[in-house]
Amino acid sequence: DAGVIQSPRHEVTEMGQEVTLRCKPISGHNSLFWYRQTMMRGLELLIYFNNNVPIDDSGMPEDRFSAKMPNASFSTLKIQPSEPRDSAVYFCASSLGGQTYNEQFFGPGTRLTVL
Amino acid sequence: KQEVTQIPAALSVPEGENLVLNCSFTDSAIYNLQWFRQDPGKGLTSLLLIQSSQREQTSGRLNASLDKSSGRSTLYIAASQPGDSATYLCAVRGNTPLVFGKGTRLSVIA
């Protein structure tokens, strides 16, 4: 299996622009998670989906952030408009099962820089 | 609210030493605890997963233990090698998905 796939790997944009991050989970996994990692705050969960349905989006920082999972093999995280404080590495992870006991597998991340 | 703490924040050891990384968590009502490795500029690689009913898990030179009642886990690395240099993160899963510690940055000096 190719593992969790994220694109782009790097994104540099200007403040105010829309940014869309993409994730393809491991085939067969039915839970998908979006995380953000910064030096100051470490790894934080933004939102997670179970069977394509958003379960908990309490970690989404504000309305500028939105996430969708139109099908079992694709998810997007959108920031509109972007701000310099959104600069971070964004990780997508997937697992088999929702409130269960299974490992999460992480993608390589998207490094976002907002100028 | 679950909080996960990892001590020390950084550790430097000579090659060949055995070492222990510590992880503590405030809410013992967890499903499992997972240890990850992160290399600079890379994603997270899962090392070991311990279910709440288990006491330890082993993979090669790595051994992770879990004491749920005291809210502690340790990751033991035997015979450390320069290739073990990375940041090690622990994460616990309870009623919300994974809550991460800030990690221990390990340097193994040849």
Give a quick set of tags describing it:
heterodimer; A: 115 residues; mainly beta; seven-stranded mixed β-sheet; four-stranded antiparallel β-sheet; B: 110 residues; six-stranded mixed β-sheet; five-stranded antiparallel β-sheet
Sequence of secondary-structure elements of chain B? EEEEEEEEEEE
Q: What integer is the average pLDDT of chain A?
A: 92
Shape field of chain A: globular
What oligomeric state do the depicted chains represent? heterodimer
Description:
- The complex is a heterodimer of chains A (115) and B (110).
- Chain A is an all-beta fold.
- Chain A is built from no helices and eleven strands.
- In chain A, strands 2, 4, 5, 6, 9, 10 and 11 form a seven-stranded mixed beta sheet that branches. In chain A, strands 1-3-8-7 form a four-stranded antiparallel beta sheet, with no helix packed on it.
- By secondary structure, chain B is an all-beta fold.
- In chain B, strands 2, 4, 5, 9, 10 and 11 form a six-stranded mixed beta sheet that branches.
- At the A-B interface, strand 5 and strand 10 of A face strand 4, strand 5 and strand 10 of B.
Structure in a nutshell:
The complex is a heterodimer of chains A (115) and B (110). By secondary structure, chain A is an all-beta fold. Chain A contains no helices and eleven strands.
Layout: helices, strands, pairs:
The complex is a heterodimer of chains A (115) and B (110).
Chain A: E1 5-7, E2 10-13, E3 19-24, E4 31-38, E5 42-50, E6 53-56, E7 65-71, E8 74-79, E9 88-95, E10 105-106, E11 110-114
Parallel strand pairs in A: 2-11
Antiparallel strand pairs in A: 1-3, 3-8, 4-5, 4-9, 5-6, 7-8, 9-10, 9-11
Chain B: E1 4-7, E2 10-14, E3 19-25, E4 32-38, E5 44-51, E6 56-59, E7 62-67, E8 72-77, E9 86-93, E10 99-100, E11 104-109
